[in-house]
Amino acid sequence: MEQKLRQLREESLKAIREAGVLDALEAVRVKYLGKKGELTAVLKQMGSLSAEERPKMGQMANAIREELASALEQAKKDLGEKALEARLAAERLDVTIPGDSVSIGRAHPLNRVISEFSEIAIGMGFTIAEGPEVELSSYNFDKLNTAEGHPARDRQDTFYFTDDDSVLLRTQTSPVQIHVMETQPLPIRIIAPGRVYRKDEVDATHSPMFHQIEGLVVDEGITFGDLKGTLNEFVHRLYGPQVRTRFRPHHFPFTEPSCEMDVECFKCHGAGCPVCKGEGWVELLGGGMVHPKVLEGCGIDTDRYSGFAFGFGSDRLAMFRFNISDLRLLFENDTRFLEQF
Ligand code: DAH
Questions:
Q1: Rounded to the nearest whole angstrom, what is the distance from the C-alpha of residue 69 to the centroid of ligand 1?
Q2: Residue 321: what are its φ and ψ, rounded to 5°?
Q3: Which of 19, 102, 110, 269 is the most buried (most CB within 10 A)?
Q4: Strands of 281-290's sheet, edge to edge?
């Protein structure tokens, strides 16, 4: 039996040394120390030994069991440490490496002006309306009292989609007026910011794509005085109460009477400079009283209702607001420029 015990000891210690993973170690424990383990089996045979051999063998077997148990414990600890080290090596994080800098964007100056304008309008009781950029000619022109033969309808001026010129990229936000009058109940008080398109060559004041903010009010008793008061309020809220405005008579097919509004030049404050081409004034919008034909075309009773409309050039608003003298800067997306606002 002594022989057998020595052999078991050698064998099991070797197995413990060679177990590379925790599972294997557990298998070794079961194999030797488990209920049906080999050492346990030897211990069960103690009864068959002589009275003087029994305590000797018992002592030896117990010593081996303790040795095995502590060798297992140690091996388990070693394996655990090795596993932790491996994980730490694999997941190494160097907290001293400088982090990637995150550059935070900001609202484009044009969008800033559109948001400011919208907030002022909402404060005055306007709601925001939208219309399609790919529009029907009938909405862009006919329903706005702009008949066949008007120069704005020329193929040189407008991007058409179809041979019969019935679908186009809207040249103005004014068709939103028609969509709103056809679908919304009276009274109406909306603004409609959006993109518009014309066949213009790019220069400091022109782009084939630019932005407008349309406005429309239809109610009982609306007068030209309401238009002037509203537009002056917009300008003073945007640029300050000291900024002067002036209204000039003009012609638009869909308003009667019509006007254009100028503001004092933001560069020279009226003295005359290259930005205002020596005029001292910069044109900001067109507007007027909605033409009765347009109202009637949308089924509105002109005996009872009247309205005013206006169209701001949003790009101009932004240029004026931020002192930008070249329209192209707004569309080039050069961050060196955009970071200034
Ligand atoms: N849509 C015109 C344009 O693009 C601007 C305009 C003028 C809009 C008069 C209006 C208006 O609503 O009443 O030149």
A1: 93
A2: -65, -40
A3: 110
A4: 127-128, 188-197, 209-220, 305-313, 281-290, 255-264, 245-252
Residue among 140, 254, 306, 317 whose CB has most ligand 1 atoms within 8 A, to mutate: 254
Question: What is the DSSP code string of 37-56?
Answer: -HHHHHHHGGGGS-TTHHHH
How many CB atoms within 10 Å of residue 58? 13
Domain assignments of the chain as residue spans, ordered by start: 2-90, 109-338
Closest residue by Cα to atom 14, ligand 1, is 286
**CA–CA distances in Å: residue 328 to residues 75, 291, 315:** 74, 34, 10
* 109-338 placed in CATH 3.40.50.150: no
- Is 0.85 surpassed by the pTM of this model? no
Question: Tell me: the pLDDT tens digits for 227-280?
Answer: 999 999 999 999 999 999 999 999 999 999 999 999 998 888 889 988 788 999
* Euclidean distance between CA atoms 291 and 285, whole angstroms: 17
Nearest CA owner, ligand 1 atom 8: 311
Alpha-carbon distances of 281 from 133, 270, 284, rounded to whole Å: 31, 6, 9
